[in-house]
Amino acid sequence: MEDVGLIKGLIEATVKAMKFVRAYPENNPVYIRTIDNTFKKFTEVFKHTGDITLHIKQYEILFGDKQVYYNPERFDNLALLFFKDGLRELTFKKGLNKGELKAFLRIIALDERELSDDDIVTLLWERDFQHIKYAVDESVLQEDEEYETAATKKLMEQTTSANEILRAYKDAFKTEEVKAVEFTPLTESDLQNLMTEFERDSEYRLHRLVNIIFELYYQAKDREDLEDVISLMESIIESSVKNADLESVVDILKKVKIVMGDEHTHPEAEAFLKRVINYAGSPGIIRVIGGIMDSGVGFEEDVLNEFIKHLDKNAIQSFIDVLGELQNIRSRKTVINILKTVGPGDMDVLLKSLHDRRWYLVRNIVYIIRLMGAKEAVGHLIKLIRHSDTRVKKEIIKTLGEMRSPQEVSVIKEYIGSPENDLRLAAVRAIRHIRTEDTKQILIQQIMRNDFIDRDYEEKKEFFGVLSLWRSKDVAELLINIFKRKAIFKRSKSAIH
Q1: CA-to-CA distance for 114 and 96, rounded, in angstroms?
Q2: Global pTM value
Q3: Which residues are CB-neighbours of 470 under 8 A, at least 6 positions away?
Q4: How far is CA 142 from CA 83, 115, 146, 151, in A?
Q5: Which of 177 and 257 is assigned the larger pLDDT?
Q6: At what angle do helices 223-242 and 267-280 cross, to 10 degrees?
Q7: Does residue 386 sit in helix, strand or coil?
Q8: Which of 94, 300, 360, 466 is deepest in the core (most CB within 10 A)?
Q9: Average pLDDT for 122-128
Q10: Which of 376, 306, 314, 316 is nearest to 340 (CA)?
Q11: What share of the chain is helix, strand, coil (3-state, %, to 5)?
């Protein structure tokens, strides 16, 4: 068990080192210190375990039969990084030197764009490490080989022989006149392929630019230099968002967070970096994101979640503002779920929005509070129960009910006899969550009213359905007596045509 703990710590140190190697230039003191510390960690573990053999699964890494790493996410997943390229076993042999470790970390620190031409296994093979060995799933390599063989064969079948080329060359000199060359127009598919290539190249260049900007950050000598670098980062964030490219924004934010998390980062420099995080959650940026979602384009869920994870609490107000402007129901649901996630970071901002003049925004904020289960908001909701819009009142009653708030009993008592059918139903449904002696008596009092028999069928059904949740003798006897005495489920007068 001690060995398992050591290996877990070693992998955690490796993952951390991978991020630092990706974020810092090679001549940076943090980069150098990271390599030294990681090598020291390997050296210490070797003393206890000898050679270290790891078994690679899709989302986990095993040492023997013990899990020492698990990550179900797509991003920064060390297991998935190895697994997708066919690597199934990785061994670090005692005697591993610092140069080999540094080269290994540089390989695994490459991101998907930099790995577009080579895979992890190829890069490991090219380095020919003496103290790092690996085993590969041959079926993954076989798929690539079969494809290459088939493609080569097809090309050879279509290739003209040398004699035919020579004959065509001679015939060309016999031609008396030169015919105009006919160009085949590009199809829609051709144009689309060209655009894809341009975009791919653009994305790669942007990624390299981000790395260069971070190198400039490390070389900054004064506040003016820092100001220039941060402005560049903000410009890239703005441009990327306008092009619906959240992945590039996430790339920047992740690097910023890594640098901010370094204990050697100067507080003044950290304040500049925090400005980048705040800018990513600013009203202008979030409004553009909202507009893209409202247009029906949207973003990949995992990328959007990764983006949200890196935002600061200033983004809460930005998303609330956007929520009040969105027209598409799907985009509203997305923003509601975002606010459910980030809202706890600053409840005061959410509570302030309860006083917005737009009823639909207020209703959505109440709904978000319910999704969050934020019981600290109960007092604010009780004060809001006099809202002029019935839809807001319904949402408040439902929210208080699901939170099982004791204050809800007085609200139920007030609205269960409301002249508005929607409010009565909301009140009786809230009782499903607050089953006390008081709420039972409130139900019984309503059912015993003389005008109850004239209410519509669905409402009466709801009342008796909730009352039946009390599996007690007195409720059973009461229901039997009511059904014997009255044709309680006869059609109401309003239902007769």
Answers
A1: 26
A2: 0.62
A3: 435, 440
A4: 15, 20, 6, 14
A5: 257
A6: 20
A7: coil
A8: 466
A9: 87
A10: 316
A11: 70, 5, 25
Neighbouring C-alpha atoms within 13 Å toward the C-beta of 70: 3
Query: Given pLDDT bands bounded at 50, 70 and 90, which one contains residue 381?
Result: very high
Per DSSP bridges, beta strands 87-92 and 132-136 are antiparallel
* Residue type, position 497, single letter: H
Tokens 């991101």 identify what position? 111
Helix axes 223-242, 283-294, angle to 10 degrees: 10
| Radius of gyration, alpha carbons of the chain | 33
Residue type, 116: S
Least confident of 18-32, 102-116, 217-231, 480-494: 480-494
Write down the pLDDT at residue 359.
95
Among 285, 368, 360, 352, which residue's Cα sits nearest to residue 324? 360
Structure tokens at 401: 């009910």
Which of 158, 182, 54 has its CA nearest to residue 108?
54
CA 487 to chain centre: 55
pLDDT in tens, 38-83: 999 999 999 999 999 999 999 999 999 999 999 988 777 899 989 9
What is the C-alpha to C-alpha distance for residues 221 and 257, in angstroms, rounded to an integer? 21
